């Protein structure tokens, strides 16, 4: 029997990285690490990994982060309007998707 893995964060959710000091929006979720075996070092590959579009003053970048390194960001309930218009499409429920991807 296979264990079911349920992601803690959903597409479009704003999160922050506990150690790397960035905030961003979840744009994709893998149920487990999708890279080469052993590439995670001490981080367990058997957990959801997220692609997060991190936003900063210099622009944005994509980070690939394990679930145990991310947390809900209570300080940032929405993305600044300028960043929203530049990087995302937003549906009526407020879910974000990168302009290059459809909202799931």
From TrEMBL:
SMART domains named in the record: YccV-like
Protein name from the UniProt record: Heat shock protein HspQ
InterPro entries named in the record: Hemimethylated_DNA-bd_dom (IPR011722), Hemimethylated_DNA-bd_sf (IPR036623)
Gene3D superfamilies, alphabetized: Hemimethylated DNA-binding domain (2.30.30.390)
Domain Hemimethylated DNA-binding: 6-99
Keyword Ribonucleoprotein belongs to the record: no
Segments forming a coiled coil: none
UniProt-recorded Gene Ontology molecular function terms: DNA binding
UniProt KW keywords: Stress response
């Amino acid at each position: 029997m296979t264990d079911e893995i349920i992601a803690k964060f959903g597409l479009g959710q704003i999160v922050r990285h506990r150690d790397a000091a960035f905030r961003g929006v979840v744009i994709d979720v893998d149920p487990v690490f999708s890279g080469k075996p052993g590439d995670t070092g001490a981080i367990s590959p058997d957990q959801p990994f997220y692609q997060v579009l991190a936003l900063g003053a210099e622009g944005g970048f994509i980070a690939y982060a394990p679930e145990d390194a991310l947390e809900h960001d209570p300080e940032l309930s929405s993305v600044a309007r300028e960043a929203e218009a530049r990087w995302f499409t937003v549906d009526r429920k407020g879910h974000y998707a990168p302009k290059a991807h459809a909202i799931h």
